[in-house]
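Entry 14. Ran structure prediction on the chain below.
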Amino acid sequence: MNQRLIGLLFVSPFVLVMLAFLVTPLAYSLWLSLQRTTLVAGEQFVGLANYAKAFADPEFRRGVLRVLLFGLVQIPIMLGLALLGALILDAVTGRLAKLFRLTLFMPYAVPAVIGALMWGFLFSPNLGPVTGLTEALGLGKVNLLSTDLIMLGLGNVVTWQWTGYNMIVLYAALQGLPREVYEAAALDGAGQVTTALRVKVPMISSALVLAMVFTIIGTLQFFTEPQVLRPIAGTAISGGFTPNVYAYNMAFQYSDFNYSAAISFALGTVVFVGSYAFLFLTRRRSGLR
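Output, structure tokens:
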């Protein structure tokens, strides 16, 4: 048995699993998105009609705009906190660094559904301690699940959930930098803050860009937190709050699987275009190609 055949045998389980659970469902969803089901004529091939309907749908466009605006505010805050945490971890050694790293990463280990339920209780205007705390401080009854403050509440949940993950990614990139550069900066009279801003951050720009791309993709696919909090948020979270929530409701509430599949692939197009545009704009500074 030659080496090539042995290699194919080793990778065949992964290929079979990928075909069964990724490629085949995607192909079937794509076929569904090109169909339209009616009571009279059954399934009919309509080509790109569902996609044209999706991009013209004001509910879908509002959802895309909502997650874009959400990302413009939330992503810089989350990555800024992650970078700050990574720089602190890189500068601190000993048991304190291990404890700090574990504490920041721990929220990522909590399943997103459980985290959303926990924050839903904390934000509850009737039972949650957040409202009671704001009243005790004389700020009035602040409801982070209201229509006016729902984006702030969701931003808090997502930042709490994902900052630790991005921090570990950036910290791993910092650990891979040569220590001789730090010694050279110290000999030139650079302090820790100057070294962090002028040496460390530029040298991990590629890791920052990749973390940003993954965060952009995750933000555009925003689903779990608004879907879990929707029953207790009243009218603040609508059925089309995000594109993924809209696709889910079209499929499982209205049984329009064809249009739901088209919405999903239309969102995939938006994600691809947004991610590629960001990589194109940052390719020179980050060194990525």
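The chain has 13 helices and two strands. Will compare against last week's run tomorrow.
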